[in-house]
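Bench log. Compound arrived from synthesis this morning; before running ITC I wanted a structural hypothesis for how pyridoxal-5'-phosphate sits in the protein. Inputs:
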Amino acid sequence: MQVSDLLIAENAKLKVIMIVPSLSNQDVAAMRDDTPGVGQLIHFNNAGTGLALRPALDAVKEHLDLEATLGGYEAASANSAGMDAFYTSLAALIGSKPHEIAYIENATRAWDMAFYGIDFREGDRIITGRAEYVSNYVAFLQMKKRKNIEIDLIEDDANGQIDLAALKAAITPKTRLVALTHIPTFSGLINPAEDVGEIARSAKLLYLLDACQSAGQIPLNIGEIGCHMLSGTGRKYLRGPRGTGFLYVSDDVLDQIEPPFIDLQSANWLDDNSYELVPHAMRFETWERYVAGQIGLGVAVGYAIGYGMERIGNRICALGAQLRTELSAVKGVTLHDKGARKGGIVTFTVDGETPAQTQARLSSAQINVSVSKGTSAQIDLPHRGLDSVVRASVHAFNTEEEIERFVKVLGNMA
Ligand SMILES: *Cc1c(COP(=O)(O)O)cnc(C)c1O
């Protein structure tokens, strides 16, 4: 079976015939050539960190060398085009304006700058779902402690995605924010971010999307999604350097979100007694930063755009579907992904061993996977009776052959 057939098979319930533009074998071969690690291992931990991409890695190394030979400030001036390219690339990735993008050290702080920038009042309500990321949820709980806000946790629908009717019904005059995780860190689920956006828009609610796992995995378009704020990381499906991330804040809500911290990048000091915030999303940045990382992430994003996010996304979803299909035939393996639409994250458990043991055994065969723990998914995994699950996350540079080898190794253990 072809990868494209599998994607159609998985979407058969939707009863649509789809033309699925995917990457050619030649594209995949070229991507593997640009991925130094593929010769040594099977990397199915792209939801943890995407395996390093040579052009991004080279850009980081070159900039670090430039800092060593020119001086750090001088290297930044010399490479200002690379720093600017970060904004234009990220804007092209999500369909925003470049000045609506901020460079932030990771996705968590990016999300925090938006969330803690909202002036919550006592009794305000936040709507969220069971896919929400651990760090976001503990921030809700902290805000609940500080400001006495309420959290409305929306149940899953029958398919396991956020229940849109329940979301609509949960909106009250006190509702302030809809906060959604697009693709959770612990499941193949792709939440219907566009439908949520439509509901948020008609109720005139602020909408904050955690796109940490979706950026680089599937196409993102903020015009279609309709979110006001969106956060992402560099190191996962975008395959940029660690210690990098970004935040999108729409011009439309810029004045409603007060940066919780400011510095000489985000504000101009006007005189002894006054300052003004800079006019764009740069007000959420700090001046000091990992410049080489910013340049490297811009290169990684440009690389993905070069191949086309639609084609990359289709391949990732198809490989995820292939992995699920093949795993479902292995005795003793139980799949745990939910959702009407699923991506490249595949979660499962193996009878007779803990997820940590499965991970260790795969690791001894040079296969990288991760373990998602219930303690990082308190509103999801424990409610499904799961302490933890094995997480195998595929990227476009992975191959059908790697999946076959993975399943064979796993089957031998099971
Ligand atoms: C990894 C992850 C984050 C946090 O990203 P960092 O860059 O590590 O801060 C946030 N949300 C989701 C859904 C994630 O998977």
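What the model suggests: The two ends are 25 Å apart (CA to CA). The chain has a mean pLDDT of 95.
ITC booked for Thursday regardless.
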